[in-house]
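Continuing the series of single-chain predictions for the mutant panel. This is the parent chain; the variants come on the following pages.
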Amino acid sequence: MGVLRKTVRVVLWAVAVVVAIPVLVYLAALAVNWRDEAPSAAALALAADEPASTSVADENNAYVFLLGFSAPRDGDPAVAGAARASWIRKLHADPSLGMDTDPGPKELPDIAQLYEPLRDLSCAIDGGTACFDALSGARDTIERVTAEQAWLGDRYRRLLSYTEWADVTSGDFRSAYPEITTILQGRRLYYLHAWLLAVNGDADGVRKALDADLELWRLSLRDSGTVLSKMIAEGRFREHLAWGTLILRRLPPEARAAAIPAAWRRPLSDEERSLARAFRGEWKYAQNAMRAIDFGTMTLAGTTPAQAESGRSRLGALGRRVDNALAAPFFKVQATLNDHAGALARIESLLDVPYTELPAALMRAHDVIDEKPSGIVAAAYNPIGRYLISAGREANMSYGARVADLEGERRAALLTAELRARNVPPETIPAALELDSTRDPYTGQPFIWIPARSAMAFVGLQSDSHGHFEYLY
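Parent structure:
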């Protein structure tokens, strides 16, 4: 009997220890996470409102027009966009409003039918001889489709008449953005019309068309208040150079020099390259999202509580609530926002250097991404908050490379157009590149000539295949 009692006592002690250890660890971690941080200087700087001069009236705002761009053929995008902008502001003011109250428009019902006739002519981003030949052999199709869809091409021209840009967002996960598919179709029609101008030798018309298009997207690149909006502008800038290269090539030799757009000759400005405004919008989005999680109006998965519990049993819903209650102390809103603000400020500072220093700066920026807390106490503090923002750091750094690469792309496309306008024979281009003052912004070396594809090439800082750009000569 004494042996049994002793055995039971040992087992009970063992169970107590097994139970006590995680409880004690949890309580110790709870003590470490007892208080949130005060706002840091970097967080306060990002939380401050931008100057009032950045306000743009809806009727003058290209972004508002884009919000309504997918209005029906007989609708007015400016009116539809203003109604949608007003709704987005209501979202910002009222957290209880859901996305189901969006007045639209969201997408043209027949957009797939509008795109289909041009499917094989949407190849300009590849920029090769095959695309140039396909466009050259499709004049009848281009003339027919641009005439049939002239209303959408005209809508895109109307967009290009705007000279101001300001993003309108709710600042949280509920925000709605312009529907891009219809915009791209209107833009494709615009480029094909410019192609027809080139076919007819209209250098003045081509120059004006390309200038108007790039000026709008450079405006967006400069004034975008969110990372998403800035990256959309960056992508449209890149597509413009691809289409523009083919359009300029289509002109007769004697008309090519006069058609080169002024917007191609203007280097990327510090404001266009800067991520400061977009990072401010990114941080404020995070601020609103973190507060929504803290207030219980959004889950860690980015859904509403009702969405999270949809389809769950009562026991499952209860389990989720218990999990959330146990995890809540390890998510500190302000500490997370401080960490995020500090990382954004360091990335922005590292990338705000001359082009020749940018490759090394990007390597140093990896240290910010890979930064880990030192010590057990620091590692135990706010683990959920650190996890939530860590995934986006690599992307935030890559945005700087994507925007900076535009300057090299601009130079390479411009140099291609200028050498072609001077009728420089392909076999003498390597020598011409050695003598030309237009150089790779990062290395200071001549651009790369690829004789097999008769193309000028630029290798950017993006870490994947998207960092290689070619322009058909």
